[in-house]
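User: tokens in, sequence out, please.
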């Protein structure tokens, strides 16, 4: 691998995503294989990474997942690449609460051994920019600052001032370039962040402009020279550790699991799917928006999060799919749903202003409502209070919650499988279960507990064995 680095910033809004995409686009145009990564539980930026690089972007999170999993995941996915580019989240040291290293981009940099390239919004700054960089350079000894990219630079003169003050204050920190202000490169946003790549596909012309921006204003050779420490033993010579589990849990042969993948259900960790495959699953994508029925010969369903509220009318109109999922639950097929998937399994969305009510699958006897303000955001830990399709009682799972909807009035007779906490604060019982259907607002990372994927595949395998069909 030629090089690897983590692109971060002092705070959100400095241009990390645009800079990351510009670098990825330029390196790919040079013919390099770029392995993209994203710090934290973000689902939208990775979609743009994949669009630009042609390779799946992988989430790296030091709070949700053990350090060994993060490190192995990083080296596994960049083993066949020429360069690895990790886009950070928020500010470099912003993570869980007041901690600088728990759940932060800095933690990922320390775990993976990658050096940081700091993107600084230099609008209106000269010598103060060097003072800011100096603070970041000496803040945490486990984090190595390789260099800086100044963004929103007003002129060539402004750029020269920034170069001089950085060289005088921090001669050991490289300046990888100065990017001019260009509002036309901004990516649209909406309530959960940027508009997804599926809904806002970047045009070839836009990608060319991004690549041109990086070629003209950044030291790409210098960036490619940023190295990581020698690879761990398990990737020397291109050898990766064996898959998490082959052949399924308990010797079960491969089972087909239908995973919703379309504009309404687009928030899924790529490593969740990898772990399911390694546990013996065959992943079969389907679209609740467009397909009239579930895929044939499946033994389980995974409904990830997304934007069902933006496609409520189309989802409601697809009666065939709603019936198929309802019948799957009634037949005791394992069905796992999170956030948007949970909403889809309710009776539907309440009317909101000019938007009429929308009827969904109806497994859970209540409706969801959309709110004008964010309802919930942050890391969550769940302890399984009972055995379920994803694990045994007493096991702990970690994930993230982020939504603008709410539900209330869940009947007491519907089991709650989780006890959810936030930084030690009890948030109550959640994880709603009917038959073999488990639904929650939590986006679980299966890497947080090595038993999740095998347990779900095992449950699907058990269901497969009970079916008297000529598959």
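Assistant: Sequence out:
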């Amino acid at each position: 691998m030629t090089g690897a680095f983590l692109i971060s910033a002092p705070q959100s809004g400095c241009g990390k995503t645009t800079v990351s995409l510009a670098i990825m686009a330029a390196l790919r145009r040079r013919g390099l294989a770029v392995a993209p990564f994203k710090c934290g539980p973000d689902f939208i930026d990775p979609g743009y990474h994949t669009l630009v690089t042609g390779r799946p972007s992988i989430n790296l999170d030091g709070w949700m997942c053990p350090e060994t999993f993060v490190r192995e995941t990083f080296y596994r996915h960049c083993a066949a690449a020429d360069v690895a580019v990790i886009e950070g989240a928020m500010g470099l040291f912003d993570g869980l609460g007041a901690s600088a290293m728990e759940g932060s981009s800095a933690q990922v940099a320390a775990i993976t051994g990658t050096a940081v390239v700091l993107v600084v919004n230099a609008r209106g700054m000269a010598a103060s920019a060097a003072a800011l960089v100096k603070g970041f350079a000496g803040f945490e000894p486990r984090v190595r600052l390789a260099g800086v990219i100044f963004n929103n630079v007003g002129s060539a003169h402004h750029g020269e001032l920034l170069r001089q003050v950085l060289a005088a204050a921090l001669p050991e920190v490289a300046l990888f370039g100065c990017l001019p202000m260009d509002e036309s490169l901004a990516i649209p946003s909406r309530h959960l962040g940027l508009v997804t790549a599926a809904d806002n596909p970047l045009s070839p012309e836009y990608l060319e402009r991004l690549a041109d921006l990086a070629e003209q204003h950044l030291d790409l050779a210098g960036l490619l020279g940023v190295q990581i420490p020698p690879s761990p033993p398990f990737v020397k010579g291109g050898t990766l550790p064996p898959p998490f589990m082959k052949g399924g849990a308990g010797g079960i042969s491969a089972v087909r699991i239908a995973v919703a993948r379309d504009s309404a259900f687009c928030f899924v960790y790529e490593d969740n799917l990898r772990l399911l495959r390694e546990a013996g699953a065959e992943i079969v994508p389907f679209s609740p928006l467009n397909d009239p029925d579930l895929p044939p010969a499946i033994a389980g369903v995974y409904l990830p999060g997304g934007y069902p509220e933006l496609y409520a009318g189309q989802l409601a109109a697809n009666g065939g799919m709603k019936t198929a999922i309802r019948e799957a639950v009634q037949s005791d097929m394992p069905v796992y749903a999170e956030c948007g998937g949970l909403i889809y399994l309710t009776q539907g969305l309440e009317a909101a202003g000019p938007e009429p009510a929308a009827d969904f699958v109806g497994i859970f006897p209540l409706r969801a409502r959309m709110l004008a303000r964010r309802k919930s955001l942050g890391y969550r830990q769940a302890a399984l209070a009972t055995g379920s399709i994803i694990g045994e009682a007493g096991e702990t799972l970690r994930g993230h919650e982020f939504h603008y909807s709410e539900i209330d009035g869940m009947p007491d007779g519907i089991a709650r499988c989780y006890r959810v906490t936030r930084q030690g604060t009890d948030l109550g019982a959640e994880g709603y279960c009917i038959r073999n259907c488990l639904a929650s607002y939590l986006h679980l990372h299966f890497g947080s507990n090595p038993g999740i994927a095998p347990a779900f595949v095992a449950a699907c395998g058990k269901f497969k064995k009970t079916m008297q069909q000529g598959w």
